[in-house]
Design goal:
The longest helix has 16 residues, at 101-116. This protein folds into 2 domains: 2-157, 2-Layer Sandwich (Ribosomal Protein S5, domain 2); 166-271, GHMP kinase, C-terminal domain (Alpha-Beta Plaits). The chain is α+β, with helices and mostly antiparallel strands. It starts with a strand and ends with a strand. Helices cover 27% and strands 28% of the residues. It has helices spanning 68-77, 101-116, 123-131, 139-142, 178-184, 194-197, 205-208, 214-220, 222-233; strands at residues 2-3, 6-18, 24-36, 38-43, 51-57, 85-91, 146-149, 154-157, 166-171, 238-241, 248-252, 266-271. A 4-stranded mixed sheet has the order 1-4-6-5, covered by helices on one side. A 4-stranded antiparallel sheet has the order 2-3-7-8.
Length: 273
């Protein structure tokens, strides 16, 4: 079986406070985009190991016990009788970009194993498994625009109409550590929740919808700040860093060819759905 785990962007992000468990309470709006990896899983009953994992495209340098795809297999195998499998992940979504690529891969592993082996797990059950792998993993089980709260794992589907808007995603050659991003941000309660702000016309988002990580990340990585400024220079109606960075997206009312403007960066573009 082959599937195509997709990325997400964050339409705004507020860091509300530090939790007793060491995580932070946040609120954000996850929105799926079609920048995708390719993932193949096939049963391999004669294998000597539970998972044979192969990676092409962008290299993943994590050890097996830290690899989210392998962790997803073992998570299900702990409560279900899973035979050995072969996995091939062709990685196209940049790593450390705030696009949720690793989380998406893991969520798709859960969904694919569920189908391949007829486990009959419903979406709610799959989301519980996904949440234990990462705060935003559960979103990719739904894969629809969602208001996220808590650690990012409390999801509520929300209506956000970006159909036919054109998006440009740019990933510079820097990687932002999520831990460093949280260390630099000062939690605070916003004057208005993103659940309300996101209902404004897209043309109003520039002055109303913000990502709390940008202030300190822009100070450390001016290249990310400059990419956002370029998005507005070239006519974006809204631009933002996604998640804790380092990718930046711009939303446009018409198709743009700006690849030449972001040299030495990974660039993806397409229409939103």
């Amino acid at each position: 079986m082959i599937s195509f785990p997709n990325a997400k962007i964050n339409l705004g992000l507020h860091v509300l406070g530090k939790r007793e468990d060491g995580f932070h309470d946040i609120e954000t709006v996850f929105y799926p985009v079609e920048w995708s990896d390719a993932l193949e899983i096939v049963p391999d009953p004669d294998a000597k190991t539970n998972v044979q994992f192969r990676n092409t495209g962008i290299k993943i340098y994590s050890k097996d016990q830290q690899n989210l795809c392998i962790k997803a297999y073992h998570l299900l195998a702990a409560s279900h009788d899973l035979p050995p499998v072969k996995m091939h992940l062709h990685k196209s979504i940049p790593v450390g970009a705030g696009l949720g690529g690793g989380s998406s891969d893991a969520a798709f592993v859960l969904m694919m194993l569920n189908k391949i082996f007829g486990l009959k797990l419903n979406d709610e059950q799959l989301q519980k498994f996904a949440s234990s792998l990462g705060s935003d993993c559960a979103f990719f089980i739904r894969n629809k625009p969602c208001f996220a709260s808590g650690k990012g794992d409390q999801l509520e589907e929300i209506r956000v109409d970006l159909k036919n808007y054109f998006i440009i995603l740019v990933k510079p050659k820097v990687r932002v550590s999520t831990a460093d991003a949280y260390r630099g941000v000062i939690p605070s309660k916003p004057a208005a929740s993103l659940k309300e702000l996101i209902r404004l016309p897209v043309s109003k988002w520039k002055d109303a919808v913000q990502n709390d990580f940008e202030k300190t990340i822009f100070e450390k990585f001016t290249i990310i700040k400059n990419i956002k400024a370029k998005m507005y220079k070239y006519g974006a109606v809204y631009a933002s860093m996604s998640g804790s960075g380092s990718s930046v997206f711009g939303i446009f009312t018409e198709e743009k060819n700006l690849r030449h403007s972001f040299r030495n960066c990974q660039v993806w573009n397409g229409f939103l759905k």
